[in-house]
Design goal:
Layout (H helix, E strand, L loop, with lengths): L2 H25 L4 H40 L3 H33 L21 H6 L6 H7 L2 H17 L2 H25 L2 H15 L2 H6 L1 H27 L3 H18 L2 H14 L5 H14 L2 H18 L4 H18 L6 H13 L7 H4 L2 H26 L5 H5 L3
The structure holds aspartic acid.
Length: 415
């Protein structure tokens, strides 16, 4: 199957999933014959699919980053790429959350709402900043891999790649082997994608069967404001930054990104989308492995603009509904906390709410109030994850172009 057919089939799987899920929701997901699908078959197929994606994340990040680091001939260049990438990731996240806060202050989604937040959303302890920083440094590479701690895996892979480059002949032999292994894992990614339409169908059908329109309608202002802010950030902020920094076609960018966005939307996990985003960055966006192998996994862990947008809107929304004025200082606190919180948390479903708890604690809002938006969060999680991975890919292209690690022919090829 060629790439175009595959993307079309994934889209088909998603659309059918949304239709089937919505119909089941309307008919009643608890009806005997349907419950089997909603509670057993869809989740099973969906989980198998996500697990298979996750299976590839650690080997792929490790191998591609070792190869990528060794392809960058000098350490200073690696440092420069690192600093630039971090600066882009953090500043776009700050812009994202600012947009969200401004929109929420202007449109007042929470004004006049009566909140009843007898919720079961437990209070989450936020780790101190020092612990977040310490957590970047691995003490045991195998433990980091076993736990799927991506920041630690990234640090280890870079150090290993650097040492292998400096080690002369033995290094060369190991790197040649790592390159071969990397090819094999990439092949596995492509094979797995053949099953994606079914996996995507099951994931989307299940979510839509559970999350009915009634939940959305009750919180419609909040829900659509988050979606609006996500769209604005994607199609205006990213488009502008991309055009300004690269001069390339924005249309082509989004065209080349469809598959990754569909994956992120269906799985609601930036982490599980790493294999697809990495493959796509190299084969469709023209980002050379030396840059993509670093920027994509790092972005999946620390760059979450979509999540930051949800947090901005949610904070203002709850504050308005409770009649609390958190003031300009409070808003600034939200920007800083949400941006920093995104660094230490992995890209998996629902983690945005946990980070939101940290933000609420900082500005003194009751964490239990998060329960109010819990009901619509899965759908928003899907949308914001698509934005999260878009940011990783867009910035990867910008960095690659600035570093001469970009292949324009690949980017402009229409498939
Ligand atoms: N699911 C999101 C991601 O993986 C994180 C979140 O907002 O919950 O990027």
């Amino acid at each position: 199957m060629n790439a175009k057919n595959l993307t079309r089939n994934i889209l088909l799987g998603m659309t059918l999933g949304a239709i089937v899920g919505t119909v089941i929701n309307l008919v009643g997901p608890d009806k005997p014959g349907l419950a089997l699908f909603v509670n057993d078959i869809f989740p099973l197929v969906g989980k198998i699919f996500v697990r298979s994606l996750q299976l590839l994340v650690v080997p792929l990040v490790l191998l591609s980053l070792i190869c990528g680091t060794s392809a960058l001939d000098d350490v200073r260049r690696l440092g420069r790429i690192g600093v630039k990438t971090l600066a882009f990731y953090l500043s776009t996240t700050a812009v994202a959350i600012t947009i969200a806060i401004v929109l929420a202050v202007v449109f007042k989604p929470g004004a006049g709402l009566q909140l009843d937040y007898q919720s079961d959303f437990g209070v989450t302890e936020s780790p101190p900043l020092s612990e977040v920083i310490l957590n970047i440094f691995p003490s045991n590479p195998f433990a980091a891999m076993a736990e799927g701690n991506m920041l630690q895996v990234i640090v280890f892979a870079i150090l290993f790649g650097l040492a292998a480059t400096l080690a002369g002949a033995p290094g060369k032999r190991v790197l040649a082997m790592a390159n071969d292994l990397n090819e094999i894992v990439m092949k596995l990614v492509m094979l797995l994608m053949l099953a994606a339409p079914f996996g995507v169908f099951a994931l989307v059908a299940r979510t839509f069967a559970h999350e009915g329109f009634s939940a959305i309608m009750a919180l419609s202002k909040y829900f659509f404001l988050v979606l609006g802010a996500l769209a604005l950030h994607t199609f205006v902020t990213y488009a502008l930054i991309f055009k300004t920094c690269t001069g390339l076609s924005v249309r082509q960018l989004f065209y080349n990104l469809r598959k990754v966005q569909l994956f992120a939307f269906s799985t609601a996990s930036s982490n599980a989308t790493i294999p697809v985003n990495l493959e796509n960055a190299e084969h469709r966006l023209g980002v050379k492995p030396a840059v993509a192998s670093f920027t994509i996994p790092l972005g999946a862990t620390i760059n979450m603009d979509g999540t930051a947008i949800m947090q901005g809107v949610a904070t203002v929304f709850i504050a308005q509904a409770l009649g609390v004025d958190i003031g300009l200082q409070g808003y600034l606190m939200v920007v800083v906390t949400a941006t920093l919180a995104s660094i230490g948390t992995a890209g998996v479903p629902g983690v945005g709410l946990v980070m939101l708890a940290m933000v609420f604690q900082q500005v003194g809002l009751p964490v239990a109030a998060i329960g109010v938006i819990y009901g619509v969060d899965r759908l928003l999680d899907m949308a914001r994850t698509a934005v999260n991975v878009t940011g990783d890919a867009v910035i990867s292209v910008i960095i690659a172009r600035g570093e001469n690690e970009f292949d324009q022919q690949v980017f402009e090829k229409r498939e």
